[in-house]
Design a protein that fits this description.
heterodimer, A: 181 residues, alpha+beta, two-stranded antiparallel ribbon, globular, B: alpha/beta, FAD/NAD(P)-binding domain, 5-stranded parallel beta sheet, 24% helix, 16% strand, disordered C terminus, flavin adenine dinucleotide binding (chain B), Auxin_biosynth/cation_transpt (chain B), oxidoreductase (chain B), FAD/NAD-bd_sf (chain B)
Chain lengths: 181, 419
Amino acid sequence: MTVTDNGVNVQALLDAREALKGAPEAARFTWRATSKWDRGVHCTTTIENFYGLGAEQSHKAKSEFAADHPEVFAAEDNGITPIEYLLVGLASCLTAGVASVAQNRGIQLRSVTAVVEGNHDIRGILGDPDVRNGYNDIKVTFDIDADASKEDIEAIVAQSQKRSAVFDALTNPTDVTVEVA
Amino acid sequence: MGDSVTTVVVGAGHAGLAASHFLRRRGIDHVVLERGQVANSWRTERWDSLRLLTPNWLSRLPGLDYDGDDPDGYMTMDEVVAFIERFAAGAPVRTGVNVTSVRRTGEGFAVGDLRCRSVVIATGACNVPVVPDFGDLGVPQVTPFGYRNPDRLPDGGVLVVGASATGVQIAAELRRAGRQVVLSVGEHTRMPRRHRGRDVLWWMHESGLWAQRYDEVEDLDRARRLPSPQLAGGADVDLNTLTEAGVELVGRLATVRDGWALFSGGLRNVCSLADLKANRMLAGFDEWAGLTGRVVLEPTRVPAKPRLRLDLGSGEIGTIVWATGFRPDHSWLQVPVLDEKGRLRHDGGVTEVPGLYALGLPVLRRRRSTFLHGIEDDARYVVDHLVRTLSGTPGRPESEAGSTLGWNGHGSGDIVSPR
């Protein structure tokens, strides 16, 4: 019998779930990003530290993300559009979920590709009060090659959505506070 | 009161009366305390049209089988009350006694002023409707305890929140009465009333799945939390039949902001999950029966553009029905056996406090624990354990049979325990 190895340490996750049952405080994480305006609609966001397990934590390395707008928006296109970062988040989160659920179910993945498309009517951000600012809808299409039936693969993808932080954040309202320090 | 008895059973529903049945057989001096009348919840906390989810031939209690002339029918609430009243004959029930405290004493327990050596909690799993708090919504609201029939609701459209057994039944009934109905759908358990011509509960029963014991269930925590299935006594109710009838489906009610109800954009996925699980359950039945050729349910039809928000102040919605589940009430229990989420900690009905037992909770000892016919094995075991503890030889009674017919557990994590 071959051992399923998608590179996900499912046992550690299951152990963490057990451990956190007795320590809900440790489960409270705060993720942080710091963004600095460069010029025009270009800014650079840095992510390095976060809080969790009752203490300050750091990523192995600092990451920088440039955001700008494309030339058709009369911008310099120094980076992707902020709303595209939502697609990055959604695709990565669902894909991570697919790998984890597959690992937990003993299904070996060979390849996973997700195409994410968000439909956006930009009249909203240009001031049309009848059009919303954000996405009208988002479609994710997974192409998965794995040792499993179509039904099992569909079940993995469904379970991945069920447990996805970003899917939840995009499909449910979140209370957002913006202040000037 | 101020007197004493060996055992107090709290609650004279079918579970408490089943405990009494076995306590009488074992000659244990006991009383059954009941806040109202026998079968109180069935009398006072159910809507008019509700019928039992289990067919009559399956509706049996220890020593009392259904003996009417409609074995394939589903009992009305009046019939359920009458059935339980028959079962109560000979039980030492004290009605109109509201238990407000159970404390430990040196010798056992004090139930109010009544002293005893052991207590069986049989107060039910559905004492309090769970209603999310979104503040003042400016719209009349009702829980399933207050809902009786469509005529008693204020005029106008109805937002039914929750698509388990209660929500789908009430949505269907309101729509039949001509109401505009919006149904907010979160995670749910799809279950066709019939599979290959037989009641789906026949399959649950005959395959042995329903008899699966709590210590054989893969994810017990989850099995105990599963939403009740989209079933109705006798009628076909699922999201597709509701859509055909003109009910509008929206996602889970996420919050209410500035007078607008905001619904989750995850409706499609909760429907996919429910479809996959239901099909897996049916495949499991077929596998058990050695049948080939899959019967696959019609996929749930999700609106192309489900509404994400609804203005509660527009007048479109005249009433909100909260079909968002129930929880037991153990607030009167002054014995530290509740977990961090307020749920009773027990091992198949046996709490860690010697002499304190529970019956009638979801998947207490078997998947069928909360159904009428599920109480017999549970009550027999719990009373056996209780008698051993009283006699000073505590320990597990003789082992019970596990799943009777070798259900292999395929997809069993998805099967439901109803209310």
